[in-house]
């Protein structure tokens, strides 16, 4: 119990640090792709600036997307666009926008984090239907990343509750990816125990008892597993797992469990800020272009599942398209799921406090 109390204090401190940094700093891409701090105004002569507050595993995707969008925008308008990027745990990023981070657009891990911004009065109602596919231009799912050889013989969620298996997963209180992780595991337990909630909670308690580190965000969890060498298995976004395998093919392998979840990272215009900054039109174009063929192919190349089914099929060698995926609708939508599982004293707290 003392070990878990120490861990919780570390999580709280980490979340506070992430929130402070997310509020105070951001970096962007110049036309040559180098990092730079945000500009002084939203529009100067023929240069437009835009701020995209995103969650942490999308760094590589948006570094590349900002370049192709800048080319498209220059061709169609004759103007130069500079995009300022900010990344962190999705929940922390949402809170930073509520508390003053002047995002023109948000591209976060789950709809509930954007709903938080909407409820603060910064995003107009109906944002979920503003763009196709629940305003999710790409999707992902939850998989396992293990070390080459898979010594602990990990193949499904059952294997994560075995004694001696060290699990790495981020904290659902700050990470959208961690919420998807939890729900995928819960859905597996639901099927395994025929909706017997007592057995389901016991299963989840055993799983989280095996968790060695809960970072504040998904990228931090990947760093803990891949670079710091902790744990036997990382519960990860599919794109994070595939990226790690691509970078270290002789050191890691990805395992797709029998049941997972269709994760829908959502995007939205932060209307209050966009209206104030005069960026409403360019913000809409920035998000709409994510559905273009070029952007959809780029998403697939960065290991996100394109929402365009035709383009998704061209990546059938990359993604397991036959995996059994539940959806957030199986939990009554994000508002209900968050209330049931992740609010204070809800099921996650009950399980973790055990």
Task: Give a verbal description of the structure.
This protein folds into 2 domains: 2-138 and 265-313, D-Maltodextrin-Binding Protein, domain 2, CATH 3.40.190; 142-262 and 323-353, Periplasmic binding protein-like II (D-Maltodextrin-Binding Protein, domain 2). The protein is built from 15 helices and 16 strands. 45% of the residues lie in helices and 18% in strands. The chain is of the alpha/beta class. It has helices at 2-24, 59-77, 90-98, 111-119, 132-135, 176-192, 197-209, 218-227, 238-247, 271-277, 280-288, 293-301, 309-313, 334-342, 347-353, and strands at residues 27-29, 35-36, 43-44, 47-55, 80-88, 105-108, 138-139, 142-147, 167-168, 211-213, 233-237, 252-255, 259-261, 266-269, 305-306, 324-326. Helix 2 runs antiparallel to helix 12 (293-301). The longest helix has 23 residues, at 2-24. Strand 4 (47-55), helix 2 (59-77) and strand 5 (80-88) form a beta-alpha-beta unit. Residues 1-44 have low confidence and may be disordered. The strands form 4 sheets. Strands 1, 2, 3, 4, 5, 6 and 14 form a 7-stranded mixed beta sheet that branches. Strands 10-9-11-8-12 form a 5-stranded mixed beta sheet. It is globular, with a radius of gyration of 20 Å. 49% of the residues are buried.
CATH architecture of the largest domain: 3-Layer(aba) Sandwich
Helix proportion: 40-55%
Beta-strand residue fraction: 15-25%
Mean pLDDT: 89
| Name given to the CATH homologous superfamily of the largest domain | Periplasmic binding protein-like II
Number of domains: 2
CATH topology of the largest domain: D-Maltodextrin-Binding Protein, domain 2
The geometry reads as globular
- The SS-based structural class is alpha/beta
């Amino acid at each position: 119990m003392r070990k878990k109390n120490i861990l919780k204090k570390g999580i709280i401190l980490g979340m506070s640090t992430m929130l402070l940094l997310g509020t105070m700093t951001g970096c962007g891409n110049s036309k040559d792709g180098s990092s730079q701090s945000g500009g002084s105004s939203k529009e100067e002569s023929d240069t437009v600036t835009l701020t995209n507050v995103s969650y942490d595993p999308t760094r590589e995707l948006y570094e590349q997307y900002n370049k192709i969008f800048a080319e498209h925008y220059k061709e169609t308008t004759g103007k130069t666009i500079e995009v300022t990027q900010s990344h962190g745990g999705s929940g922390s990023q949402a809170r930073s926008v509520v508390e003053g981070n002047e995002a023109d657009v948000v591209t976060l891990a789950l709809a509930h984090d954007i709903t938080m911004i909407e409820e603060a009065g910064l995003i107009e109602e109906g944002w979920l239907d503003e763009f196709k596919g629940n305003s999710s231009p790409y999707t992902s799912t939850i998989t396992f990343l293990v070390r080459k050889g898979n010594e602990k013989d990990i193949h499904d969620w059952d294997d994560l509750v075995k004694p001696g298996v060290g699990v790495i997963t981020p904290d659902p209180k700050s990470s959208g990816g961690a919420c998807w992780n939890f729900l995928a595991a819960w859905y597996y337990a639901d099927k395994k125990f025929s909706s017997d909630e007592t057995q389901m909670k016991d299963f989840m308690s055993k799983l989280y008892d095996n968790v060695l580190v809960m970072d504040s965000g998904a990228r931090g969890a990947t760093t803990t597993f891949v670079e710091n060498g902790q744990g036997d298995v990382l519960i990860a976004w599919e794109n994070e797992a595939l990226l790690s395998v691509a970078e270290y093919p002789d050191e890691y392998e990805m395992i797709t469990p029998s049941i997972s979840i269709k994760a829908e990272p959502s995007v939205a215009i932060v209307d209050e800020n966009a209206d104030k900054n005069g960026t409403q039109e360019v913000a809409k174009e920035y998000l709409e272009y994510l559905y273009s063929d070029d952007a959809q192919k780029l998403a697939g190349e960065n290991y996100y599942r394109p929402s365009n089914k035709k383009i998704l099929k061209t990546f059938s060698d990359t993604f397991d398209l036959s995996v059994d995926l539940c959806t957030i609708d199986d939990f009554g939508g994000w508002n209900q799921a968050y209330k049931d599982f992740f609010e204070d004293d809800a099921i996650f707290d009950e399980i973790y406090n055990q």
